Amino acid sequence: MTEAQETVHDPIGYLSPELLKGHVAFITGGGSGINLGIAKAFARCGAAVAICGRTEERLAAAATELEALGARVAYKAADVRDPEALQASIDHAAEQLGDISIAVAGAAGNFFARAEEMSPNAFRTVVDIDLMGAYHTARFAFPYLQRTRGSVLFISAGQAYKANKYQAHVGAAKAGIEMLMKDLAVEWGPYGIRSNSLVPGPISGTEGMARLAAQSGDEAWKRAVPLGRYGDKEEIGAMAAVLSGPLGAYVTGSQYIVDGGIGLTSSAHVSEAVERELFRTEQ
Ligand code: COA
Ligand code: NAP
Predict the structure, then answer these.
(1) Of 57, 77, 119, 136, which residue is 20 to 30 A from 65 by alpha carbon distance?
(2) Rg of the chain over CA atoms, in angstroms?
(3) Could you confirm whether domain 16-209+233-261 is CATH 3.30.450.20?
(4) Helices within the chain (DSSP H only)
């Protein structure tokens, strides 16, 4: 790795602190990880930010971090699988901060499991959180997005288009999200509402990578990334801010892959390691 590649950089710092001034963002899963990274990027670009998740304490801690960045912040806990609770969280955000102009569907669940062994409820749980949760987010943000001619951003994953062992539930859910994104771009375009997806690659310091690299190890993952490293939450946040605000004004129905190129390479290293360690089988 060259010195230039190792240099700590601040992609959000290249964006104007007024880029999202006047915008109100609602972010599911915004209490942690990549989605909190997106919330912080929005806050640094001048948006008011509402976050949603199941855990009140996690939301409160994240809200403190966002307020420290100068943002007006709101949160109300909800499970994205529960339409009434999620609608209440979205309406609460709008009451506190104003009409929502950016909705981000980022909440998700993931674990490795063999397709033939996981229970129907295990499969359904991931589809419910990822796909139904994304639909609920767009559905209940719609009245606000219609008034603001806003934007919805779906946080997807490479599993949506690249086949993997032990990820059938995630692949089905994320692939569904990609088509939902395109359908809404067509159906809501006449209202001025834009709909896009962002596909992160392996991002450092996240629960997702803690789960996915637990068996195969970080180095195996990094070798699979053409750029040779994990991405940062800030790199995802910066792209989300570009797509969700005026810089993305003519972008809709598009999938943005921010993955260091891993979507182009084999996932065999993961399957072999998972088989060895997780399922304790000889290969
Ligand atoms: N392997 C196989 N099945 C699993 C599993 C695993 N590792 N983890 C959970 N399940 C099954 C459960 O057994 C249950 O099925 P059952 O009722 O037939 O036994 C079903 O999935 C639901 O599990 P439960 O723990 O009740 O769900 P939950 O709603 O409390 O939690 C999860 C959802 C399972 C996705 C949980 O991991 C979670 O909350 N994840 C959020 C964080 C995360 O995944 N971050 C990474 C984002 S990419
Ligand atoms: P994370 O920190 O675990 O993010 C998931 C968030 O969603 C948590 O804040 C969680 O909070 C919330 N959540 C989970 N289930 C929920 C539910 N039913 N209702 C409401 N909120 C719920 O994981 P992450 O790794 O940063 O992943 C964030 C997003 O990026 C996901 O969409 C994931 O698929 C995507 N992604 C991640 C990577 C990666 O490298 N990490 C790569 C590709 C894509 P509570 O538990 O408090 O509810």
Answers:
(1) 136
(2) 18
(3) no
(4) 3-6, 33-44, 56-68, 83-97, 120-127, 133-148, 168-188, 207-216, 218-224, 233-244, 268-277
Who lines ligand 2 at CB under 6 A? Answer: 28-29, 31-35, 53-55, 58, 79-81, 106-109, 129, 155, 157, 200, 202-203, 206-209
Active site residues: 156, 174
**Which of the 8 DSSP states describes residue 228?**
S
- Is the CB–ligand 1 distance for residue 109 below 6 Å? yes
| pLDDT greater than 80 at residue 133 | yes
Q: CA-CA distance, 227 to 55, in Å (whole number)? A: 35
Q: Which of 103-107, 121-125, 165-169, 270-274 has the lowest mean pLDDT?
A: 270-274
Please give the number of the atom of ligand 2 that sits closest to the Cα of 170: 34
In the chain, the amino acid numbered 236 is: I
CA of 32 to the centre of ligand 1 (A): 17
Ligand nearest to the CA of 31: 2
Region 20-43: what's the mean pLDDT? 98
225 lines ligand 1 (CB under 6 A): no
Query: Which residue type, as a one-letter code, is found at position 44?
Result: R
What distance in Å separates the CA atoms of residue 117 and residue 176, rounded to the nearest whole number?
A: 22
- The full DSSP string for 122-186 is HHHHHHIIIIIHHHHHHHHHHHHHHHHT-EEEEE--GGGTS--TT-HHHHHHHHHHHHHHHHHHH
Structure confidence at residue 142 (pLDDT): 99
Distance of CA 38 to CAs 58, 92, 193, 225, 233, Å? 16, 20, 20, 22, 7
Question: Is a pLDDT exceeding 70 seen at residue 41?
Answer: yes
Q: Domain segments of the chain: what residues?
A: 16-209+233-261
